[in-house]
Structures are given as structure tokens and as C-alpha cells.
Fold this sequence. Notes:
453 residues; Growth Hormone, Chain: A; mainly alpha; 80% helix; 0% strand
Amino acid sequence: MRYIWLYVVAVIASLGGLLSGYDTGVISGALLFINENWDLSDSVQGILVSSVLIGAVIGAAVNGVLADIFGRRKIIIATAVIFILGSVLCALASNIYILILSRIFVGFAVGIVNFVVPLYLSEVSPKHLRGTLVSLYQWAITAGILFSYFINAVFAHAVYNWRWMLFAGVLPSMVLLIGMLFMSDTPRWLVSKNKIDEAEKVFSKIEPDIDAKLEIQNIKNSLSAADESQNKHFRFKKWMIAPFIAGIGIMFAQICTGINTIIYYAPTIFKYAGFDSNISAIYATTGIGIVNFLMTVVAIYFTDRLGRKPLLYFGLSGVMLSLIALGTSFSFAGILGAGLKWVAVGSLVTYIVCFAMSLGPVGWILVSEIFPLKIRGVAMSICTVSNFAFNFFVVASFPVLLNRIGGAFTFWLFGLVSLLCIIFVYFYIPETKGISLEEIESNWRKGIKPRKF
Length: 453
């Protein structure tokens, strides 16, 4: 019970993840009914689904600096307002072009929360709970995806079904907005703005037993070390290249192993595999969402016990094998016949289990830990931009790949990427379990190789 306020803060902030997950997952079901209304081509479907990622790239790009200037809390509040307005605009769209523009607007908020909420959680968390609390963000994303699947199922038979699906994001947006109005900013950001008294108060709330003055002094020392010139202007140094390689690389691994082809297109994949109606495909997809939600709990439990890299090795290996199995099932579709859809379900479930236990939460944990405080907001913004840029490329190209080279070669390609990512994790990703943010920065400065810490 010592950390009750800390958990309250973490749960409220993590609602940003729920909204990100909702707007990621809801289009999977809505797309089936939008396509019935407007009979979209493959390329337009790809643009509609990936349009949220265009906005996400913009949101992530412009808000790293703003988060460092105005603070993490104010940016989260602004994001909640954007989610509310964007949900209403999507629901009222009169044609496909307005819907795409509205999805881009929603994507702007998605891009913001995907870096500012993990950043917020990382900076308020004690080092022994940091992995767990930042994992709550990924759990919230899976909760949002699951929520979107349930909403899709509820409104599948309704009049204006897809409009209600897209509108339903207003409710959690309101909860996030109201909740964050009562929260404080992170002590590390407050110290960076010389708001020492306020930082001490926040530390006393979130970590009752901590020596707040000592923690503040450690943060000051870290900031002082980053002031590389007499006039106190920050300069990029060679040692900072390594954390950027690790951060952008783990974003590549998280996205380019194919997760959002599953999240966005699961109903489409199931119909491709033999499910004969929109409703049955949506129900099958809901099962995927439940597995994703439940298995992220496993990652929350183990990330501060086993460490980041063991989970990545396990998860990437499982992701690779399940993608190979999924591709193989499509290559033998003529032999499997009606059994193809159950092989597809089994492969997708295995994929989700492995991803949810590893790349999903661990990717965001790492990018919230590995950068120096002086540039953490901007650096996480750059990583988030790369995440959504990779995401846009993968999601926009998936329906084209599926129809041009077939399911087998498409999923085998993702399997090959997974193998390359295992090698990358070994050489370039550090183990950050149980190490303070200031110690991680010090290790980079000393030139310690990622394999050594």
C-alpha cells in the first residue's frame, strides 16, 4: 500500500495507451462495413487503415520538444482533447476523404501518447518498479484493442454500425482528460525546470520512503553532466549514437515483425483463410484480442524479474516460428481446405502470445529508459516517429503483398525479419533491469557495450 498513489497515477496515465489501442484496433472491424458502404479498392483500404499513422508520425515529431518545454502532464491533457474531437469527426464523416482526414487527426493524438505516456511513467517510477509500471502502458494498449473488438462485435448489427464503432472512443478520452487534471508532472521534469519544492512533493507522494533530496541531487548531477559547454547549451555527443541505434532498432523489431498486420487486418486474414462472414471473422478477432490482453499481464509480472532481454529472446523466437507456421499453412491451403482457418487461428494466437510477452511492452520500456534526461523527450519522439513510419510502411503495403505474392510469402518475409531482430537484440540492446535512469546514462557515457549492461 506504500505505492498506492503511484499506481493511481500510472493507471490514469495509461488510459492514453487504451485510447491508442482502441484507435488501432477499431478500424479492423469497421473496415469491413465501411467497404460495404463505399466499395474501396485495395489501395484505398490501405490508405484508410494507415491514415492514422500519418497523423501519428506528425504528432510524435512535433511533440518531443513540447513535452520538454511544457511538461509531460499538459501534453497528455491536450492529447485527450484531440482524441475526443477526432472520434466525433470520424463518426460524422460524410465520405471516404473526410474519414481519412479525420483518422489522420486522431493519429496525431496516437503519436503523442505513444511517447509521452511511457516517458511520464518512466520518470515517476522507482527503478525496481519501472518495468512493471511502463508495462501497464502496453497492457492498456491491449485493453484498448480488446475494447475495440468488443465494440465492433456489439455494433456489428446496428444501423450506422461503423460510425458507432469510431465514436465510442469519446468515453475513455473523457476519463483521461478529467483524471490528468488532478495529476502532477514528473519530478525529473520539474527538477529540469528548477521547480525543486514541487518535485519534492511529488517524490513524497509516489515514493514515501525515498530520500527526495538525494534523488533530486542525483538528477541535478545528471543534468550537469549533460551541460557540455560553459554556456550550458546541450551538444550531441558521439556516445549518444548507441542509445539511438538501440531505440530505433527496437522500434523496428516491434513493428516490422508484423504485429499491426495482425491487429489491423485480423478479420481480413480470417476471411482470407476461410471464415465466411464479417461477423464470424470479428468474433474470431475478439478471441485474439483477449489473448493479447491476458498475456501482456505475464510480461508485466516478469519484466522486472527476468529482465528485458530474456523476454525479447523468447518472444522473438516464438514470433518467428508462428509466422513460419502461418505462411506454411497458406502455402498448403489446397491440402488443408477448411482446416486452413483453424491453422491460421492457432498460428495467430501463438504469435500474439509471444509478442504480448515481449516486444509489445519491452519495446516501450526500453525507449523510456535508455536516453539521457536532457534529450529524453526529443529522443523518445524520434523513436516514436520511427515506430509509426515503420508502421505506415508495413500496414499500407500488407494488403498489396497479400494479394500480389500471397499469404505464404508475406508471412515468411516477416519471419525472416524476426530472425534478424534476434541477432540485433544480442548485439545492440542493453539489459536495464534494476538500473536507475541516471546509471543507464552513465553507462552510455563510459562507452560500456550494450552486452555488458
